[in-house]
Structures are given as C-alpha cells and as structure tokens.
Amino acid sequence: MALVARLLVVDDDPRIRHLLELLLSGVRHQVVLADSAKAALEHLRRETPDLILLDIMMPDMDGLTLLGRIRAVRRLAKVPVIMFTGGGKELEGPSRALGADLFLEKPVSGRRLKEVVENLLAREGYVLPGGERVNSLEEVGSRLRHALPEEARFKLLWRKTASRRALLQNLLAKGWTEALLRRILPGEYDLYDLLGHLAFGWPLVPLRERAARVQDPRLASHLEAYLEEKRLPLEGNGLLEELAQALYA
C-alpha cells in the first residue's frame, strides 16, 4: 500500500521547484517548497519531513553545507536526502561523505525521480515518535497499543468530549498524533478510526461515510423514539452527543 509522505524540496530555481511539486504531489505526497537554505532551515526547525530533495548549487548557502547542518541534528540524522545538481559528477563524493542517500545529476526524468523517491520511502518504513522507524503497519499498531488505554476503555473515553480532549493531548505530548498524520494511509479518515484501525484492527470508515451517517434523517427519528421510550426530555440530557459518539462504536 502506498504511503502519503511529506517531502521538502530545496532549490533556488522556481522552474525546478514547480516541476518537482507537480511530479511528486501527483503521486499523493505533500510537497513543501523552500527557495533557499535559510528557508529550508526555518522549516526544519518546526517539521521533520519524510524525505528531502536538495539542490547543491544555491547562492546563500550551498546544499553541501546545508546537508552537513541537517545531519548534525539528531532528529534529522536519518531523514533520507537526495542531492541533485547540474554541477557535475565530481560532487557525488562529498555528498555521500556528508550523508546523502542518493546523488542525481540534472536533468532527471520524472519516472526516474518518482522511482527513487518511492524506493527510499519504502526502505525507510514508518517513522514513530522519537524517530524510531519500523517496517510494517503491524509494528506501528503494536507500539500504538502501548500508548492507548485498553480497547473498551478507549471507546468510552472517546465518547466524552472532556476525556477525548485529554486523550488527544496525551497522544500529542507523546508525539503520536504527529507521527500518524505525517505518514497516514491513503484516503481521508477520522483520527479515531485511524487509531482504532492501527491499534485494534477496526475497519476504516471514510469521512464521507461518517458524515452521511450523521446526516441520515433516520438518526433523529431513532433518537426521538428512544427518548420517548425512556420518558426522557429531548434537551439537556446529553444523549444527543452520546448517540452521535455511538456511531464510532
């Protein structure tokens, strides 16, 4: 199954940046563009991309110097880096010595570029909190289960707004929400579904299907019938939220 990855492209030529964005976003990857080493460093202070494509010949700071600074940061030390340049084959040795995973000379065909990007991403697997990498979704799920409550309690916590927020804050503090949203399964899914799928093997339900369930007019009639049967008021009893959350059960 293909992965959705965040890629950082660093090149001072706007035509090259535009071309790379078109090529790589077309295979569902999220592409961030930086027009200089300075812009790249600003982005890398906040984010950890899954792969970096780095031009060597840039005016403010060359790509080799930038690569050295990237590899000096523990969080970024294992992020795959592809160096690409029109400066000549003689730059491959220094690139490799500084930790580049691959060296490409311009021009590079779109097919070749997409091939090497996908190969590097597949080799790197999945990045977990703290920078640990695993090779399969099963391993992701195994680690995630240790960060979540047991399955039944997880369902109960998610159905209440306060406990759901507390759970998300806990996952955010541990780095799990970022890790999951950085390299998620293709498609648009609710975070709860994604967590349940990876940790407990639940089926994934697309967001559109979730929305369709909530908007189903039968939902209101079922709720009213339930409240009437229990002889409870329609307003102020909290069951509206409970029933909506029950859709996730």
TrEMBL record:
<dbReference type="Pfam" id="PF08463">
    <property type="entry name" value="EcoEI_R_C"/>
</dbReference>
<dbReference type="InterPro" id="IPR013670">
    <property type="entry name" value="EcoEI_R_C_dom"/>
</dbReference>
<dbReference type="Pfam" id="PF00072">
    <property type="entry name" value="Response_reg"/>
</dbReference>
<dbReference type="InterPro" id="IPR001789">
    <property type="entry name" value="Sig_transdc_resp-reg_receiver"/>
</dbReference>
<keyword id="KW-0597">Phosphoprotein</keyword>
<feature type="domain" description="Response regulatory">
    <location>
        <begin position="6"/>
        <end position="121"/>
    </location>
</feature>
<dbReference type="InterPro" id="IPR050595">
    <property type="entry name" value="Bact_response_regulator"/>
</dbReference>
<protein>
    <submittedName>
        <fullName>Response regulator</fullName>
    </submittedName>
</protein>
<dbReference type="InterPro" id="IPR011006">
    <property type="entry name" value="CheY-like_superfamily"/>
</dbReference>
<feature type="modified residue" description="4-aspartylphosphate">
    <location>
        <position position="55"/>
    </location>
</feature>
